[in-house]
Amino acid sequence: MALSPRYVLRETGQNLWRNVLSSAAAIITIGVSLWLFGGFFLFNYAVDNATARWEGGIEFVVWMQPEATAEQDANIRNSIEGSPAIKEWVYVDQNQAYEEFREIFSDTPELIEVVSPDVLPPSYRVVPENPDADVVSELSDQFVGRPGVEEVVSADQTIRDIQRLADKVTRVFLVGSVILLTAATLLILTNIVSAIRSRGAEIEIMKVVGATNWFIRVPFMLEGLVQAVMGAMGAWVGLRILDDTVIKGLSEPDSLQLMQGFRVDQGEFYSTSLLVLVIAIVVSGIGSAVAVTRYLDV
Amino acid sequence: MIKLNNVTKVYKGTVVAVRDVTVDIAKGEFVFLVGPSGSGKSTFIRLLNREELPEHGTIYVAGRDIGTLGAWRVPFLRRNIGFIFQDFKLLPKKTVAENVAFALEVIGKPRHVVRKQVPAILELVGLAAKMDNFPHELSGGEQQRVSVARAFVNRPPILLADEPTGNLDPQTSVGIMKLLDRINRTGTTVVMATHDRSIVDTMRRRVIELDQGVVVRDQARGVYE
Ligand SMILES: Nc1ncnc2c1ncn2[C@@H]1O[C@H](COP(=O)(O)OP(=O)(O)OP(=O)(O)O)[C@@H](O)[C@H]1O
Ligand SMILES: [Mg+2]
Q: Residue B125 contacts by C-beta under 8 Å, 6 or more apart in sequence?
């Protein structure tokens, strides 16, 4: 009574092969749309990670030159301690900076190998009394260009920069992926419908000899599922590449300070992969369900 | 085995294809449905298979009221009914053996059953030697034998045939009728719509004549007219 796997595989394989070109079109479309969809999530994770160092009310960071003298350092420290406008501050020395670096780049040991604590800048992470943008910028300006100071980065601006970039990128990804996912669903639907049409004779015989609805439907539904899962596999490869090149590239140590920490960890990558697979299954499910209920009256 | 009570079938609200038909067909009977073109023979047969539902009346097949059968049980009804088409409806890309096996596979029969029953039925219809041929390599009569094999491979208690000899020459038709006769003698109920006068007159079986959907004659060991 059960569907024999041999029968189902043979029928599904034949269906896919008969329409190789349109199957390929569906697989590519769903692959690209899921890639964009997954990319949206990876970028969001990366942005969250990049802005993580601004947690706890830290509004600006005074990055010291690694080769700053103790005197220059004491000078800055005195200014910070003496300022009534500063509520709290944390000094991150080179060893702590190295720890932070190791944590951020735990996925890429080769990067950690070439970096040692003495090349990393120590920094003062400052929490002002008043987080108002104007006050913060006036306060942080006091440290710009002083001896031993490499750069002063205020959270406000950094986060806004990242967010603006991320917003653009992710919006394109999301809108593009939703449009393409719709196209992919329609492609899967039309593929199944054309498979149903081209197998009218088989279906007629199946009905007349008493095959159940599910027996008739399952090979067609499986066809949609196979297309979706193959697309998801392609999308997964694309996401790996996106992570290895663009995202890791943006967070190279010599790139902008604000991009450091722009990264995705393994757990985030795999939950995104899983989501992509689930979406693929849902999309093929919708396409197949509509196809077999609307176009296969059994 | 088959029982129609006051069955009326109306197409599109206007065409009355079968009108108030009451017929009782016992197990193992062989019944010819005759009548002019458009008299409702095909409709009669499709009603038994539940391809059509009647507007009025009740139909019992194999002890079940098929009008009240849930949609999901229709396939199981059809497993009791073999169906033979005028135009064979063999699948062109499958061999003889595969065409017959298909009918078993799609109702979920396990492989060992398929491997046993397919050669046996092909033996019965006299096509064991051609089991690996494709339909286009066969004569019309041979193709119809394959179609009979496919309809009967699951040993259904009822066989329906809509002009099974309609596309065949008289000589070949006789061969198919001998085959159906043999199947009938194993206890299978056969209902066959036909225009073939000589077949009906030679076989002398029960004849039900329809005219404009009405049963105008129901005759045991009858003739065509
Ligand atoms: N699906 C349909 N929709 C509408 N009308 C139909 C349909 N099928 C049959 N009819 C009509 O019902 C009547 C009976 O048709 P049916 O096919 O049962 O006759 P038949 O006796 O099998 O004819 P033939 O000997 O030519 O095969 C005819 O008037 C036909 O036009
Ligand atoms: Mg007819």
A: B145, B146, B148, B149, B179
CB atoms < 10 A from the CB of B67, how many? 14
Tell me which chain B residues have a C-beta less than 8 angstroms from the C-beta of A209.
78-79, 83, 103, 106-107, 150, 154
Cα(B220) to centroid(ligand 2), Å: 22
Tokens for B182, please give them: 């043999």
The answer to whether A185 touches A287, Cβ cutoff 8 Å, is: yes
Beta bridge partners of B23: B4
* pTM greater than 0.95 (yes/no): no
Report the C-alpha gap between B86 and B167 in whole angstroms: 7
Q: What is the mean pLDDT of chain B?
A: 95
Q: Can you tell me the distance from the alpha carbon of A207 to that of A197, in angstroms, rounded to the nearest whole number?
A: 15
How far is it between the farthest Cα atoms of chain B? 50
**Which residues have CB under 8 Å from A176's CB, separation 6+?**
A33, A36
Residue B165 backbone phi and psi in degrees, to 5: -105, 10
Q: What is the reported pLDDT for A28?
A: 92
Q: Across all residues in chain A, what is the average pLDDT?
A: 83
How far the first Cα of chain B sits from its last, in Å, is: 26
Shortest-distance Cα residue to atom 16 of ligand 1: B40
Nearest residue to B32 (alpha-carbon basis) of B209, B217, B184, B215: B209
Confidence of residue A1 (pLDDT cuts 50, 70, 90): very low
Report ipTM (2 d.p.): 0.93
pLDDT tens across A113-130, in order? 888 888 888 888 888 887
pLDDT attached to residue A172: 82
